[in-house]
Design brief:
Low-confidence stretches of chain A: none
Largest sheet of chain A: 5 strands, parallel
Mean pLDDT of chain A: 90
Radius of gyration of chain B: 18 Å
Number of helices of chain A: 6
Order of helices and strands of chain B: HHHHHHHHH
CATH superfamily of the domain at 1-79 and 182-202 in chain A: P-loop containing nucleotide triphosphate hydrolases
Oligomer: heterodimer
Number of domains of chain B: 1
Low-confidence stretches of chain B: none
Largest sheet of chain B: none
CATH class of the domain at 1-79 and 182-202 in chain A: Alpha Beta
Radius of gyration of chain A: 17 Å
Number of strands of chain A: 9
Mean pLDDT of chain B: 93
Helix content of chain B: over 70%
Shape of chain A: globular
CATH topology of the domain at 1-79 and 182-202 in chain A: Rossmann fold
Distance between the termini of chain A: 28 Å
Structural class of chain A: alpha/beta
Strand order of the largest sheet of chain A: 6-7-8-3-9
Order of helices and strands of chain A: EEEHEEHEHHHEHEE
Chain lengths: ~200, ~220
């Protein structure tokens, strides 16, 4: 389990443009961090930096697990539960097949798919191809992926997008539970997370 | 079942469902092989002489049809982000995708080739050599194609320049493959050509996943 994630004087450049400079923050186990900022401020880029997709222009990100520290991007990626602004679903696959794939992709073969689908409110759509899901239902299935992957570090890009009121409450409840279990959440959002969390303005 | 096979089976399932890329490649291959005898005319000796080259080029072009989607579909809908964060290294992910592509296009094309060789009046032994050469050589097409597919990942019309990148790299496969069939037709041993083809295919399959993984990493960061 991760004990903390620390960004030290992080800088991010996309092409010639510097998005942010000397950004430092620390998130400890059980905490959530809301990343706020105008469109184009670099929220998604920050999440991609943390996930290890992007290399920082300067500075480093250190994950502390117990007594060991690591700033390796690939290693950090193995801890990440990713909810990007794209849901990552295939229209040809059924909801259950898709979730089964995600569980096996994360080497979680014993995941209880039916229970997870019920939890995100997709029990009745289990046999439906993803192409027939609404935007909100796709988002719920992407949330189910977070649950079956059982990763400690959740990186969420606009987690409330496309969801109805019940869906937003569900996200808030899942986030609270994840923090309660000692996980870390870093979320790019325009809405308050409602977790008594800290926020970071880009 | 390992993460590798999970990815392999998923890609094959998707290939079979999304309009059947295998069916598309097979029909393209069959059409090319039917059109050439119509264009060349009924000179049976000439047809047998060009059969190896035409069928090899046809098979390469047919396999190319679905190659540009190898990573792009997953890149566009965000699946590739999730796959990249899985416990499987991207090199093995690339290898799984290459294997899935070969099983759903290269292998069916190989199986169909003896039937198409009939249209070229190719005798039995050279047909067997053609089959063997495609079986050995088509994995190289999928493997080298994966490099092209990962390079053109973020280009909207990447499918158009993909052939320009990978066809020159595939020329050894076509030369050795068609050469083996010619040797067999002349009553000579095809072993040396097949051996070179096997070496080329082995090197491609072993090295391409590293190149493809490096390109995918670049594109995930971009």
């Amino acid at each position: 389990m991760i004990s903390s994630l620390t960004a030290e004087k992080l800088a991010c450049a996309r092409g010639e443009r510097r998005l942010f400079d000397s950004l430092s923050f620390r998130v400890r186990a059980g905490q959530a961090l809301a990343v706020e900022g105008a469109n184009g401020a670099g929220k998604t880029s920050l999440l991609r930096l943390i996930a290890g997709f992007l290399a920082p222009a300067a500075g480093r990100i250190v994950v502390k697990t117990g007594e060991t520290e690591s700033d390796d991007g690939e290693e950090r990626g193995r801890l990440v539960g990713w909810l990007g602004h794209l849901d990552g679903l295939k229209p040809q696959m059924t909801v259950k097949e898709q979730l089964n794939f995600f569980a096996r992709l994360h080497a979680m073969r014993d995941a209880d798919l039916a229970a997870t689908l019920a939890q995100v409110g997709l029990a009745r759509q289990a046999e439906l191809p993803c192409r027939y899901l609404s935007a909100g239902q796709k988002r719920r299935l992407a949330l189910a992926r977070l649950l079956v992957s059982r990763r400690p570090l959740w990186l969420l890009d606009e987690p409330f997008a496309a969801l109805d009121v019940a869906g937003q409450a569900l996200v808030a409840q899942l986030m609270a539970r994840h923090c309660g279990e000692g996980g870390i959440i870093i979320a790019a959002t325009h809405d308050p997370l409602g977790l008594g969390n800290e926020s970071l303005k880009l | 079942m390992s993460v590798f096979t999970t990815l392999l089976l998923r890609d094959m399932k998707l290939a079979a469902r999304s309009g059947g890329s295998a069916a598309l490649a097979l029909s393209f291959f069959a059409l090319v092989a039917t059109l050439v005898p119509l264009g060349v005319g009924a000179d049976l000796r000439l047809l047998a002489r060009v059969a190896g080259g035409v069928l090899w080029v046809g098979a390469v072009l047919a396999a190319l049809l679905s190659l540009d989607r190898l990573f792009q579909g997953d890149f566009e809908d965000g699946s590739l982000d999730v796959i990249a964060l899985s416990p499987l290294p991207l090199e093995l992910t690339s290898l799984a995708k290459i294997a899935a592509h070969w099983l759903s296009t290269g292998l069916p094309l190989t199986v169909l080739s003896p039937l198409l060789a009939l249209l070229f009046n190719l005798p039995g032994h050279p047909t067997a050599i053609l089959f063997a050469s495609l079986l050995i050589g088509t994995p190289a097409v999928s493997a080298i194609g994966a490099i092209g597919a990962s390079l053109t990942l973020s280009l909207k019309r990447g499918g158009l320049i993909l052939p320009l990148i990978i066809l020159p790299l595939l020329s050894p496969a076509v030369i050795f493959g068609a050469g083996a069939v010619s040797s067999a037709l002349d009553g000579m041993a095809a072993n040396s050509a097949l051996g070179l083809l096997a070496a080329f295919a082995t090197a491609s399959v072993l090295l391409s996943p590293f190149a493809a993984a490096a390109c995918v990493r670049l594109n995930l960061g971009g």
